[in-house]
């Protein structure tokens, strides 16, 4: 509307001149007035030029063809200003409401803080009151304890005084009794001494009479015995028939005693060689009367059993199996053709099947076997030489041929030059060398050792073949695990053993997993793993063997094997190189 009021509109020149003239007049008039008068005149001064311009604009607008649009536009602008004003009013009211809400929130927060602070103050007050109560109670307890301790102390002092008085009374009574007893004993001794002095002559006379009587009795007995013996010798010497009869009887008696002793020795040695077994032999397949009486069924089965494969139930490296099979065939043909047996050394880590193969070899060849342990020789001391000779004498009496298996042979067949061995053990070694100096057709010598490097050179000279039994490889371990899984798990489960059930899983794949886990374990350790599976079943609540139980037992056995290997000292590692596969860490 500025154009309507004449703002920003150029004025006519005459108006400017008039205005200029009027201004000059006003300035001249104002200069003549005081400051207060000028202020008063300024209040009543009115510029009519604006009204004139407005009137001119109104006339111009009325004459214009856009007057109506301008009016409508001014109305719309006014309406817009009113709406904006209403919007501002509402915004102000909203701000006021928001301020009220915020004020309420602040009030509520203040009240909450006040309540929290009051609660905290109350808690602190309660805690303080509780502490005061606890302190008062503790003080009361302390006071009561002091009173009780004081009463107890007084009671103990009273009891101690009473005990001291009682002890003094008892000691006084004992002292008086002891004095009375001593006085009584002194009186008795005096009376007895007096009586002894009075009866001394009588007692001495009684002692003399008893001694004289005893001496007389002894002399009479000696005289009687001498008379009887003398009469007997006189009668015998005067009659020569009685002398000859007595001499012949004594001679026959002595002869009978010595003959019976010799016959008994011969009979016992014969029985021992034919029926019994020497002391050093721990296990044998030969007939032994005591063993047959103890285990008749086992003996009958042994008699009725047929020769089996030497490698049946024995899992070894294929090359080793081929070599042992050749040994078994050669041994069997040697027995059939009554040839000379070859001596064999089997060495390697413990639990790799040396003893098992020796038994199988004897059964396959149709020979008897006998097992002795080298550790049994040293404890015999001086009797070891006799024991060695008895073993070889007994071996020569076998009609089928004997396979003599010496386990842990290095225990008494050590080097005589470098080893410190006793004289008894040295004599036993010499006896063993003497009896094995030549090959024969009666017995076959098989030695087993974990440390063959400790053998005496003379022992090595008597060995015809050496076979090394190594730890099973991956394929051998898997075969062993399958064998023992079938023996200790599948067969008992199939037979319906009590509290023995088997969960369904892939047994072959499980054995393959365990073969990788059981690296470095021997055949004996793997067989013990089979027994541990049975133990796991018996220890379970439902008696079911699961795959997890099988694998857990295998991992436990492998961990125990590693622990055993870690326990080996450096000296043991050097002595048992075969245990660690020849690797010395």
UniProtKB/TrEMBL annotation:
The listed locations are:
Mitochondrion inner membrane; Mitochondrion matrix, Mitochondrion nucleoid
Record's SUPFAM superfamilies? P-loop containing nucleoside triphosphate hydrolases (SSF52540)
Positions in coiled-coil regions:
82-109
Basic and acidic residues composition-biased segments: 147-164
Example GO BP: mitochondrion organization
Q: Where is the AAA+ ATPase domain?
A: 340-473
Source organism's superkingdom? Answer: Eukaryota
UniProt cross-references to Pfam families, sorted A to Z = AAA (PF00004), ATAD3_N (PF12037)
- The segments labelled Disordered in the record are 1-40, 138-164
Q: Where is it chiefly localized?
A: mitochondrion
Record's GO cellular component, any one? mitochondrial inner membrane
The molecular function terms of the Gene Ontology recorded here are: ATP binding; ATP hydrolysis activity; zinc ion binding
What Gene3D superfamilies does this protein's entry cite?
P-loop containing nucleotide triphosphate hydrolases
Q: Which UniProt keywords apply?
A: ATP-binding, Coiled coil, Membrane, Mitochondrion, Mitochondrion inner membrane, Mitochondrion nucleoid, Nucleotide-binding
What name does the UniProt record give this protein?
AAA+ ATPase domain-containing protein
What species is given as this protein's source? Glossina austeni (Savannah tsetse fly)
Q: What is the lineage of its organism?
A: Eukaryota, Metazoa, Ecdysozoa, Arthropoda, Hexapoda
């Amino acid at each position: 509307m500025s154009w309507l009021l004449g703002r920003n509109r150029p004025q006519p020149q005459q108006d400017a001149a008039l205005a200029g003239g009027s201004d000059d007049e006003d300035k001249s008039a104002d200069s003549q007035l005081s400051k207060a008068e000028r202020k008063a005149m300024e209040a009543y001064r009115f510029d009519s030029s604006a009204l004139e311009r407005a009137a001119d604009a109104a006339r111009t607008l009325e004459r214009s063809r856009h007057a109506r649009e301008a009016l409508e536009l001014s109305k719309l602008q006014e309406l817009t200003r009113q709406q904006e004003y209403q919007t501002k009013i509402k915004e102000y009211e909203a701000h006021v409401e928001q301020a009220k809400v915020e004020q309420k929130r602040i009030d509520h927060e203040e009240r909450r803080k006040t309540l929290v602070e009051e609660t905290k103050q109350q808690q602190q007050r309660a805690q303080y009151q509780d502490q005061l109560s606890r302190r008062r109670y503790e003080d009361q307890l302390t006071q009561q304890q002091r009173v009780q301790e004081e009463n107890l102390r007084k009671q103990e002092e009273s009891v101690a005084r009473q005990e001291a008085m009682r002890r003094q009374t008892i000691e006084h009574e004992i002292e008086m009794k002891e004095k009375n007893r001593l006085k009584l004993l002194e009186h008795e001794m005096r009376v007895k001494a007096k009586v002894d002095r009075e009866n001394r002559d009588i007692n001495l006379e009684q002692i003399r009479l008893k001694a004289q009587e005893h001496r007389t009795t002894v002399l009479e007995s000696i005289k009687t015995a001498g008379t009887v013996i003398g009469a007997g010798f006189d009668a015998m010497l005067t009659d020569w028939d009685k002398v000859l009869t007595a001499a012949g009887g004594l001679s026959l008696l002595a002869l009978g005693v010595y003959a019976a002793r010799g016959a008994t020795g011969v009979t016992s040695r014969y029985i021992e060689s034919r029926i019994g077994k020497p002391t050093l032999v721990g296990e044998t397949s030969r007939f032994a009367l005591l063993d047959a009486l103890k285990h008749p069924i086992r003996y009958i089965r042994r008699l009725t059993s047929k020769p089996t494969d030497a490698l049946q139930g024995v899992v070894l490296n294929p090359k080793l199996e081929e070599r042992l099979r050749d040994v078994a065939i050669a041994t069997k043909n040697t027995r059939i053709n009554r040839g000379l047996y070859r001596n064999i050394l089997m060495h390697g880590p413990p639990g790799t099947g040396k003893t098992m193969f020796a038994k199988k070899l004897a059964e396959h060849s149709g020979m008897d076997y006998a097992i002795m342990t080298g550790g049994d020789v040293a404890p015999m001391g001086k009797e070891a030489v006799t024991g060695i000779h008895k073993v070889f004498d007994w071996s020569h009496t076998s009609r089928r041929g004997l396979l003599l298996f010496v386990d842990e042979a290095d225990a008494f067949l050590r080097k005589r030059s470098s080893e410190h061995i006793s004289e008894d053990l040295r004599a036993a070694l010499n006896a063993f060398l003497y009896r094995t100096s030549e090959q024969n057709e009666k017995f076959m010598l098989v030695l087993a050792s974990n440390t063959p490097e400790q053998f005496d050179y003379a022992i090595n000279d008597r060995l015809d073949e050496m076979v090394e039994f190594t730890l099973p490889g991956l394929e051998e371990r898997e075969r062993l695990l399958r064998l023992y899984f079938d023996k200790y798990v599948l067969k008992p489960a199939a037979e319906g053993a009590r509290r023995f059930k088997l969960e369904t899983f892939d047994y072959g794949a499980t054995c393959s997993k365990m073969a990788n886990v059981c690296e470095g374990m021997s055949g004996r350790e793997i067989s013990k793993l089979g027994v541990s599976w049975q133990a796991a079943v018996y220890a379970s609540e439902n008696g079911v063997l699961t795959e997890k139980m099988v694998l857990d037992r295998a991992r436990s056995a492998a961990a125990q094997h590693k622990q055993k290997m870690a326990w080996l000292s450096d000296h043991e590692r050097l002595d048992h190189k075969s245990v660690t596969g020849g690797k010395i860490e």
